[in-house]
Predict the 3D structure of the following.
Amino acid sequence: MTKIFTFVLLGAFCMVNAQAFKGKGDTKVNVGMTFQDGGTGIVASTDYGLGENFSIGVLASYLLGVDEYLGEKPGADYRFDAKLRFNANLGNVINVDPKFDLYPGLNLGLKNFGGHIGARYFFTDGFGVFSEFSVPFAKYDADAASKYNNGPSFNAGVSFNLD
């Protein structure tokens, strides 16, 4: 009986048709951790498909654990960041696996203009993991305290398909 149950579960798992990016109207939500120089925190983003390989979205992050600057912890204005995003979803172009999506993109935020490259892998139709690396191209503020949410960062966590 256990062999039959195991076989049925394995079959059901293999029949799941997970797809990382489906194109126009596809909505993904990412929730995870952000790691950067001076602090770590939480990040949430969403992307909405405009076409077969393009999506737009928003990202918000908040640093929970931060280093002190001039003997004080930075306030919420330095800890919080929000960005508008544009992605080129290349999963179906590179054709590695339909459950995998590679997405380079640009972001325009409260603190800088920059770029990112990310990847998603979906285990089921609704659940997967993501990782992203982001770097600023132009910073709006040269103040040393503005380094929070204003430098290279690495984000990782879980991804949900709302489509």
In short: The chain has three helices and eight strands. The first helix runs from residue 2 to 15.
